[in-house]
Amino acid sequence: MKLYHSGYDVIKIPDLKHGRKNADFGQGFYLSPDEEFSRKWAMPRTGRECIINTYELDETNLRIKTLKRDETWFGFILENRRYARDLYEEYDVIIGPVANDTIYDTLGITSGNWLSNEELLAILSAGPLYTQAVIKSEEAKKHLSFLSYEVLDPEAVREKRKSVRAEEEEFQKAMAEILK
Fold it and tell me: Is the pTM of this model over 0.85?
């Protein structure tokens, strides 16, 4: 499986402890099998180059959990956001949808206790479907090979970010409709 990671550094050996424990799929190294998604979500930063790292994951003998946008996925995300025990700690790799509140500005509305689980699932499921893969174990890290990196053209990054802003507006409209 080919995987991509956007950031500001060439990362030949990922740090599994760098990611937040309460992220979508818990602590680990987050990538995507979707190169276009990785390019779209490269974030410009003054004085830094945006870089796409490309990897290959040998899935042989790895314990991989694949999730879909459903109640099981939602429950796993919610538990991680609440710093609960990792429901899938025995897996090496988790693959599944990005919870769109992490990539669109929702002002923390999904992290509070103001909404029902049905409302939260509807919000997290709104918008485009993007996939992420999280390398969670040292065993999976051994199966991940760095292939190459590319420094992205700053103008291309700015253009991609325009499409993200348009998606963000659509997501916020969908979220407002859900909350009516």
Answer: yes
